[in-house]
Each structure stands twice: as structure tokens, then as C-alpha cells.
Write a structure and sequence with these properties.
Blueprint: H1 2-34, H2 45-52, H3 56-59, E1 63-68, E2 79-84, E3 87-88, E4 92-93, E5 99-102, E6 110-114, E7 120-122, E8 127-128, E9 135-142
Parallel strand pairs: 1-9
Antiparallel strand pairs: 1-5, 2-3, 2-4, 2-6, 6-8, 7-9
Length: about 140
């Protein structure tokens, strides 16, 4: 139990450090836009949250992952990670609706989901999007 807690704290610290560094870069890009330079907006936790509030049609522009329990009820705060081969992006938590939207380039992604509270586990190690689909539902079961 202590090992899981320590792992979670270390991961949380890493996420905070990376988020802080990422936000500093985002602010630099915002000032470039004010100067008339075009920049490419990166996916941030804030833009991801805003995207989850948009319609399902808007979700087609990104990859939408929904995490539910065995009763199809959404599970919040499950960390979802998108990977291409051995390269994985930073895991991001699901919102209150069990949804996370990643605004990544089109690719063949594998998806991993982890509930750091230890309440739920996935039924398989990783998931893939169906051919041509940008939406995926991951069903988790109780950890017992």
C-alpha cells in the first residue's frame, strides 16, 4: 500500500512539473499570437476539459475515451494514456463524465487506463480504436 501511495505521489509530482513547464510554453505561444505570429495550439488540461463539454460531433476532431464501470456508470479521475508503439504521451484524468479527449494527430494509438485509487482495474492491459473510429469505451471492473 505504501509503495502504491509513493508511486502515486511521485507520478503526481511529475505531472505537476510537466504541466507547469507546458503552461509556460503555452503562455509564450499566446504572446506570439498577440504579435501576429501564427502558432499551433497544443492540447492542455484546460482545452481538454473545454472539449469534453462540447458536443459529440466536436469529439470527432480528437480521440474520445470514455471510462465506465460494469454498470456503464462513468468513472472520474481514471488516468488514460495514449501510446504509439513504445512511445506514450502523458496520462490525463477523465472528467466527472468519465471522458477525456485527446487532440492528437491521426495515428494508430493504443490506450491504457489506470485507476490510481485502486478501486477499479481494466479488463485488459491495453485497448485500440476500431478501424476509422476516434471513440473508445473502456469498461473497468472492481479491483477485488
Amino acid at each position: 500500500m505504501k509503495t502504491k501511495l509513493l508511486t502515486f505521489i511521485v507520478l503526481l509530482c511529475a505531472v505537476l512539473i510537466l504541466t507547469t513547464a507546458f503552461c509556460a510554453c503555452e503562455n509564450k505561444n499566446d504572446s506570439d499570437e498577440d504579435n501576429g505570429n501564427e502558432t499551433t495550439a497544443s492540447a492542455t488540461a484546460e482545452s481538454t476539459t473545454e472539449a469534453t463539454e462540447e458536443s459529440t460531433e466536436a469529439a470527432i476532431n480528437g480521440y474520445k475515451v470514455t471510462v465506465v464501470n460494469q454498470d456503464n456508470a462513468p468513472i472520474a479521475d481514471v488516468y488514460v494514456q495514449m501510446c504509439v508503439g513504445e512511445t506514450c504521451m502523458l496520462p490525463m484524468p477523465t472528467d466527472a463524465n468519465g471522458v477525456i479527449i485527446f487532440e492528437y494527430d491521426e495515428n494508430s494509438y493504443t490506450v491504457k487506463a489506470t485507476d490510481y485509487s485502486g478501486t477499479y482495474v481494466t479488463e485488459q492491459a491495453e485497448y485500440t480504436f476500431a478501424d476509422g473510429s476516434k471513440e473508445l469505451v473502456i469498461k473497468m471492473k472492481p479491483a477485488n
